[in-house]
Amino acid sequence: MAEDIQAIRMEIDAIDEQVLALINQRAQHAQTIGRLKNGTVYRPEREAQVLRRIKEMNTGPLADETAARLFREIMSACLALEKPLSVAYLGPQGTFSQAAAVKQFGHAANTTPCASIDEVFRVVNAGAVDYGIVPVENSTEGAVNRTLDLLQDTPLKICGEVDLRIHHYLLRKVTGLDDVKVVYSHGQSLAQCHEWLNRHLPSVPRVQVSSNAEAAQMAAADESALAIAGDLAAEIYGLQCLFEHIEDEPDNTTRFLVLGLHDAGASGHDKTSLLMSARNLPGAILELLQPFARHGVSLTKLESRPARSGLWEYVFFVDVEGHRDDPAVAAALVELKDKAALLKLLGSYPIGVL
């Protein structure tokens, strides 16, 4: 048996040499393309095409998501050879926003925490960072209204989206549940783990804090405290993971938007976001929706928010399937422009995947 294991290990070593050589060969080609482009280093549409292709080609035993994550990191490292990307997110370190940034850009990107969603918009618009990641909606809690409000006035473009499955972990500085005095977490996370906490820690007080990362910081400083946060926070703040996936809804997902100063090209599987408002006429809202129906364009989101232009006026945030350069979407937008009191294209970008 020992001889068999040694033989297999020798084969693995030989494969590792081939893999390393091929990765470096890929990096050299990426550097050449970077010199030829003389422009934007990060092309979300190209990366989406690569990751979709990897999943289609994958025959296992690695899961499709695992294979895609490996290639995401390879692409991230190759991009860093040209120019390490800087990405702002809603901090502090260890938030799900940072996890979304890592999922989209890989560990080679430089992530910068911001104190608010407003600050993420501001630093991207000022050119202090290349991109920003902001939450826009959660599958159980609904829309993030601050993000929708800021999209009304910003010149920034949506050039990508990230769907992140939200898994909550019960964290502590030490192991075990003895002498626990408090559970810290963000209000939404406490709500999302309500039933689990009722079953397992019914008498332990729950205290809301500004973020799960802050909860992890507080638990790291107090051995009698628990925190509900993500696994990234456990890694950053040196906490023990006592229980995994304690959320009541296993499919709980947050959608994040990638903000930048440029549009994304068509990837073949895209989404277009826009905002529009109706004229104050009977049937005006119906008229805004008819161009999409006429041209066979599917709406995936329709959300209203108060407009900044006046009292009791509203704008509608709309997501549709397809890139704005696709013939059907383009035709619907031309028709919509004549019917809407306000029409603003927020961006076309590759559809995010879990």
Automatic annotation (TrEMBL):
CDD domains: ACT_CM-PDT (cd04905), PBP2_PDT_1 (cd13630). Residues 273-350 form the ACT domain. GO terms for biological process: chorismate metabolic process; L-phenylalanine biosynthetic process. InterPro entries: ACT-like_dom_sf (IPR045865), ACT_dom (IPR002912), Chor_mutase/pphenate_deHydtase (IPR008242), Chorismate_II_sf (IPR036263), CM_dom_sf (IPR036979), CM_II_prokaryot (IPR002701), G/b/e-P-prot_chorismate_mutase (IPR010957), Preph_deHydtase (IPR001086). Gene3D superfamilies: 3.30.70.260, Chorismate mutase, Periplasmic binding protein-like II. GO terms for molecular function: chorismate mutase activity; prephenate dehydratase activity. Its EC number is 4.2.1.51, 5.4.99.5. The record marks T254 as: Essential for prephenate dehydratase activity. Residues 1-86 form the Chorismate mutase domain. Pathway: Amino-acid biosynthesis; L-phenylalanine biosynthesis; phenylpyruvate from prephenate: step 1/1; Metabolic intermediate biosynthesis; prephenate biosynthesis; prephenate from chorismate: step 1/1. It catalyses: chorismate = prephenate; prephenate + H(+) = 3-phenylpyruvate + CO2 + H2O. Signal peptide: none annotated. Residues 86-261 form the Prephenate dehydratase domain. Pfam families: ACT (PF01842), CM_2 (PF01817), PDT (PF00800). It is found in: Cytoplasm. One of its GO terms (cellular component) is cytoplasm. SMART domains: CM_2. Keywords: Amino-acid biosynthesis, Aromatic amino acid biosynthesis, Cytoplasm, Isomerase, Lyase, Multifunctional enzyme, Phenylalanine biosynthesis. It comes from the Bacteria. Catalyzes the Claisen rearrangement of chorismate to prephenate and the decarboxylation/dehydration of prephenate to phenylpyruvate. This is Bifunctional chorismate mutase/prephenate dehydratase. It comes from Sulfuriferula nivalis.
